[in-house]
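Supplementary material to the annual report.
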Amino acid sequence: MGYERQADFGTPEVRSDTQVTLEIDGRAVTVPAGTTVMRATAVSGGSIPKLCATDNLKQFGSCRLCLVEIDGMRGTPASCTTPVADGMKVHTQTPKLAKLRRGVMELYISDHPLDCLTCSANNDCELQDQAAAVGLRDVRYGYDGANHLAAETDASNPYFDFDATKCIVCSRCVRACDEVQGTLALTVESRGFGSQISAGVKSDDFLSSECVSCGACVQACPTSALMEKAVTEIGKPERAVVTTCAYCGVGCTFRAEMRGEQVVRMVPWKDGKANRGHSCVKGRFAWGYAQHQDRVLKPMVRESIDQPWREVSWEEALSFAASRFKAIAAQHGNNALGGIVSSRCTNEEGFLVQKLVRAGFGTNNVDTCARVCHSPTGYGLKTTFGTSAGTQDFDSVEESDVILVIGANPTDGHPVFGSRMKRRLRQGARLIVIDPRRTDLVRSPHVEADYHLPLRPGTNVAVLSALAHVIVTEGLVDEAFVRERCDWDEFQHWAEFVGQERNSPEFLEPVTGVPADLVRGAARLYATGGNGAIYYGLGVTEHSQGSSTVMAIANLAMATGNIGRRGVGVNPLRGQNNVQGACDMGSFPHELSGYRHVSDAATRALFEAEWGVPIDPEPGLRIPNMLDAATDGLFKGLYIQGEDILQSDPDTKHVAAGLAAMDCVIVHDLFLNETANYAHVFLPGSSFLEKDGTFTNAERRIQPVRKVMEPLNGYQDWEVTQELARALGLDWNYTHPSEIMDEIARLTPTFAGVNYARLDAEGSLQWPVNDAAPDGSPIMHIEGFVRGKGKFVVTDYVPTDERTGPRFPLLLTTGRILSQYNVGAQTRRTENSVWHPEDLLEIHPTDAENRGIKSGDWVRLASRSGETTLRATVTDRVAPGVVYTTFHHPATQANVVTTDYSDWATNCPEYKVTAVQITPSNGPSEWQEDYAAQSRQARRIAGTAMEPAE
Amino acid sequence: MSGQTEAKLVYMANQIARNLAHEPHPASAVADHLRTFWTPAMLRQIFAHLSAHGEDALDPVARTALAELATGRAPAPQTRATDPAQHGADAG
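Predicted assembly:
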């Protein structure tokens, strides 16, 4: 499509059951009550000049350009602050208004550079547009008065500049930072003629301030005062393609604004239902990794992992891979092969990988990274509700009265949803945070948790049992809901269990470290405060009782009737952009697409008829079991698409041993990642900008991914998998991902109504999409649970076997930060590293003092699994006895210290509880230096001088 | 077969048993879980380990569950994806 700016109706949409009809310039216009005159004019095809108004911000009424005349109303009211009324007669263009508007523009232009022809916003500037719209011809004041033309430019942010000479102090940026992002980093300093936008205090620039670089201010700015550096360097975009972000599970949709084959900027799509026109620093700015010099664009092979890589043709690489895999199958059997589906690739690509494994390799040994993050969600919610996914859409938070966040840090991990949550909290919703750390959500501008329960890592189930105890023993159960919607006998069994004294907050206080009165207050608030919604993340799942914790959460929601309508629900904050989709596509070893067990004969028959081959009815190996089997000599070949298990999976040494024991590891990725150190075949991958397909976000929302440039490696990832399948003798002939989605729809009841035509027309669809829900399912379990009756499951607290002791007296927990993403493969290859160039260890002042450690010191982090070294930062965000770090940088290899303990039901690793000791250190450990050297060695490419980064 | 893997399987079985202890029929719940999620090879491994080393390390509920699996479990339908005669035995 050609380039046009997104429509801007001036003030936010208002929803109302009441309609109002008024007359605008002689036209009858009907809009919801509460709509402003400005918006009513815009949606009916008219136009009123404006500068301080934009439709994702509340009306402000400062620029005075949008004046109108209304019959019977004195003066010239601002249309942005005037609500419509029945029978109102509005005139938007009169000689009096024209004169007033020209007068306002004269004032603006008298203090504005007149370098339009060389300005980066030329032809894309609202000030320019409005000057033309009002018919400005001259500025009677001249240009010799006091002005701001000597103001300095703040170029500190790596992605955008603030040129104060171009600023008209409309304050859209300040309001965007307030209302949309919720960080409140910007302000207007001084008053009157002295007003200027400031990113904090006088000594701050954008980089040093609290700005999180979400870009909402840049998007809101009507001039080039705030402008992407890329636009200044490359030029104005010529076309825009709507696509979906490839970072986190929020699934923001963007307009990729292009100039030729070059992305100029990613602008959030206003019609995106997941993000509603907002974004974070990663999605908006950190997409440059797709063209980073580290991209490997040619296939490579090597006979053994101690040799340098050899660049070869696609044909040779695929033939090499296929012959190795056939040899393994011949010698060791089909179950010596397996595959890992990427949670970052599209649904169609994930479906093909699991199809390749099942129909091509002849085994169910397929798994995905959900193993290490939300597999307990799949197990827990399927068991209790019948669906392996969250129950709401993101919009639902707008109707929540009480928000309970457990084991999640949405302002860092899911920032765009975090902003929406904060907006609701600023409106008055109450907040409960259950987290060992004082996350930003506990206390930030205009947001403060009513309750922060800083539990000891590993005691989630105990805290939830205590909450349940209060709800049951104080008569706070929604009995009508439970009787109607749940199995009553199972409820009574559960209620009797949680009602026991040993599950009371008082009894469990020594275990959890949370004062009993806090637990009681939080429970009462959740149960009685109105619509109660629970949001949770990996702080719930990555534990030895991860699945139990998910079921305990589900129990609380059912007991209080907080399921089946807007504003409530159980909401897992899925991590990866397409981890929900990967799971939906049958990437688990025990399930085909749509979460149907492989032992189900009817389901297998459907696939066997479509694929023409028998499907193994027995479950296959999960990733940790694949590695165990590899060290046992039983698992020999692995095809890994878009995953870096050496960096992201726990107990790094065990992962390395497993990979090293295999005969053929195929890594299909953008970069030579850590896992590729142990690979024999490297197949270059394509980024989200270079492919068509779909991603499914945490709301079960299936959204299009659209190619904006040709794949630099020559093929989209689904094409590479197809070529590998053909090399193995399979007769695959897909010509477009839409054909793959059609196959998915034929085979998967919850996707039955999904096709590309509908996705193009409607923008997105939330599964289930079928005869029962032809338009998709924003909210689930409305009339009844998918499994019929909701199931209460008794979840007794079983302490983890990972214990502190004299040797390892502290508990390590891990997490993510805003600017880097997971193993950092993408974000480390962008300017985002300016915010987080290394992983740091957070340690409480008391623990630091006891060890003679101060911020910036190197420290040794050791557990019974291994040790590593990194720098410390002393902070009271963690409690005494708890330390915290991130895992974004391979140089740290944080997973060297994590253990092999895992969730009882799913083997999701217990990343969040590791007993450690911290001691001062001189610098990187010998192990890290050896690893860095080994890594460099493993990345050598024969015939090149390539010294790949990291 | 690695002793380390077998020890891990025993640990996993015990862990499952501890967490399903409050089910109405704990042993059946454990058996059902193993049937749903463990590969045939993993089950063969643990059976072999128990035969060789005895069942003392096993939680009583896990012990009952495995016994139920060993005696009551029908073999899976033989719809193998490949022909064992062509590709050799499943060393799985």
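Residues 14 and 59 of chain B are 5 Å apart (CA to CA).
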